[in-house]
């Protein structure tokens, strides 16, 4: 099974990017973030035409939103809210005799890395803390579980293009990196990207819109992640970042990440 995660940054605006992902990556399952559409307005027919008749959606108008598109049927679908918020940031499905899949869109945290001054950053930290408590209390490490999506965090030095310049910016602060490491440990997760690409090497999945030549100059961050528990890590085969997607027509600022499980 090939699983993709992709922050599409508005599914209705970027259906052509979804088409291109299917053509280039041929995933069996696609996890989307920032769909920015209500459930009733999601393009179910388009997904079916692409070969994904099984769709789980949790959306809202203009903001957030997650979806899972699959060629294979799944059994359970669950929507959980985190840190007391009702925003659409999590969706879970279970594939029979395979694994449990969680699609996450972690809050970005706003511009100021001070939870006392910035409630958006406090929201992000609280969200990560609740994910950690869940991973620990649910004893995920002994089950086949994958969590993936836009975690809005680049925890390692080479997850950003210039660690010294960026280490005080939201998304790469020491506090966020520490909380992501704690979450990784609580679930016994394997960071799939770093299983295949050593931490000594750059690995990016996002090039911002603010700098018009961010992609050309490789001013990247790794914000999109796939983490799996040890029983599922035994089935890992391949990992790929579709970096060229950043040059698609009217692209998202994120690119898809693909993982193969045997």
Automatic annotation (TrEMBL):
Residue stretches making up the Endonuclease/exonuclease/phosphatase domain: 4-254
PROSITE patterns per UniProt: AP_NUCLEASE_F1_1, AP_NUCLEASE_F1_4
Cofactor(s) it depends on: Mg(2+)
InterPro entries: AP_endonuc_1 (IPR004808), AP_endonuclease_F1_BS (IPR020847), Endo/exonu/phosph_ase_sf (IPR036691), Endo/exonuclease/phosphatase (IPR005135), ExoIII-like (IPR037493)
Acyltransferase found in the keyword field: no
Presence of keyword Metal-binding: yes
Keywords: Hydrolase, Magnesium, Metal-binding
Gene3D superfamilies on file: Endonuclease/exonuclease/phosphatase (3.60.10.10)
Pfam family, one: Exo_endo_phos
NCBIfam families: exoDNase_III, xth
Similarity comment: family membership: Belongs to the DNA repair enzymes AP/ExoA family.
Protein name: Exodeoxyribonuclease III
Gene from which this protein is expressed: xth
């Amino acid at each position: 099974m090939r699983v993709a995660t992709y922050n599409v940054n508005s599914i209705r605006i970027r259906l052509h990017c979804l088409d291109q992902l299917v053509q280039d990556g041929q995933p069996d399952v696609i996890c989307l973030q920032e769909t920015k559409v209500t459930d009733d307005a999601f393009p179910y027919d388009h997904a079916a035409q692409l070969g994904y008749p099984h769709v789980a959606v949790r959306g809202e108008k203009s903001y957030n939103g997650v979806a899972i598109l699959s060629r294979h049927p799944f059994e359970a679908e669950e929507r959980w809210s985190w840190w007391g918020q009702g925003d659409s940031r999590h969706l879970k499905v279970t594939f029979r005799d395979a694994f449990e899949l969680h699609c996450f869109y972690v809050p970005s945290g706003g511009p100021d890395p001070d939870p006392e001054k910035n409630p958006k950053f406090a929201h992000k930290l609280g969200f990560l803390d609740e994910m950690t408590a869940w991973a620990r209390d649910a004893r995920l490490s002994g089950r086949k579980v994958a969590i993936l999506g836009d975690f809005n965090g680049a925890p390692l030095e080479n997850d950003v293009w210039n660690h010294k310049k960026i280490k005080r910016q939201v998304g790469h602060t020491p506090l966020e990196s520490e909380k992501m490491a704690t979450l990784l440990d609580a679930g016994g997760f394997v960071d799939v990207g770093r299983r295949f690409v050593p931490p000594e090497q750059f690995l990016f999945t996002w090039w911002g819109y603010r700098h018009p030549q961010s992609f050309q100059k490789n001013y990247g961050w790794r914000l999109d992640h796939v983490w799996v528990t040890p029983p599922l890590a035994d089935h890992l085969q391949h990992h790929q970042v579709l970096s060229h997607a950043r040059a698609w027509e009217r692209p998202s600022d994120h690119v898809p990440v693909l993982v193969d499980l045997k």
